[in-house]
Amino acid sequence: MNFLAHAWLARAGSDAFLYGNLIADGVKGSDLSAWPQDVALGIRHHRRVDAFVDAHPTVLSARRRAPHPHRRYAGIALDLVWDHFVARQLSLHRRESELVARSYRVLRQRPAPARLAGMIPALIAQDWLHRYSDFAFTCRAVSGIGQRLSGPNHLEALVPWLKADYDQLREDFMQLWPAVAAELEVAPGA
Predict the structure, then answer these.
(1) Distance between CA 37 and CA 32 in Å, rounded?
(2) Is the Cβ–Cβ distance between 135 and 10 less than 8 Å?
(3) How far, in Å, CA of 40 to CA of 60, rounded?
(4) Per-residue pLDDT reduced to its tens digit, 41-84
(5) Residues 141-149: contacts with CB within 8 Å, 24+ apart?
(6) Could you tell me if 103 and 120 are in contact, meaning their C-beta atoms sit under 8 angstroms apart?
(7) Does residue 103 contact residue 129 with C-beta atoms inside 8 Å?
(8) How many CA atoms are closer than 13 Å to the CA of 162, on its beta-carbon side?
(9) Residue 147: how many CB atoms within 10 A of its CB?
């Protein structure tokens, strides 16, 4: 799962909890004592979601379908594809989202960890969370992440597979998302 899915699962929590969920990929290590308590809880929640998703049989099956030379990178590509399907499910291609506006506000109010500091302004300015509803944009985002990794762009090499496997990936998401939500969606007031 990527930014949008994590925001949706954490939406009932405080802004600090939401912020922790949104920036968790930029935070290294298990010692979160430097972070305010709600932010640390959000980071831990994000990590639980990632562990649940990565171990889910549907995701493992999808990763096995990825072309072998690039399979090691399939999890990164799938995280963005899951956000595409979340965006479609939330009809973000047809309307503005209060959750997206709140996420952008929360990200503007606090500095992002160094690993995300260069990306967050672009994410907000270019409205990535709404734009994930467009699969072509999602594929460009997958390729763009691959450009930031060292060596050949293995993520860009996965884009043809993502396009060819789109219907099956949508079916995978329809199995995965209810399981993730049932297990890890934060209840109001939590």
Answers:
(1) 9
(2) no
(3) 28
(4) 999 999 999 999 999 999 999 999 999 988 999 999 999 999 99
(5) 141/80, 142/76, 142/77, 142/80, 142/81, 145/76, 145/80, 146/73, 149/73
(6) no
(7) yes
(8) 29
(9) 9
CA dihedral 132, 23, 7, 171 (to 10 degrees): 50
Q: If DSSP codes are grouped into helix, strand and coil, which group holds residue 134?
A: coil
Q: ∠23-160-174 over CA atoms, to 5°?
A: 60
Cβ partners under 8 Å of residue 114, min gap 6: 26
Q: What is the DSSP string of 136-161?
A: HHHHHHHHHHHHHSSSS-HHHHHHHH
Q: What is the residue type of 180?
A: V
d(CA 72, CA 63): 8
Quote the tokens at residue 167: 């219907």
Cα 76 to Cα 35: distance, rounded to the nearest angstrom: 26
**pTM (global) more than 0.85:** yes
Could you identify the residue written with the tokens 């956000």? 83
* Lowest mean per-residue pLDDT among 93-102, 126-135, 148-157: 148-157
Cβ(86)–Cβ(129) under 8 Å? Answer: no
Closest residue by Cα to residue 98 from 183, 190, 12, 1: 12
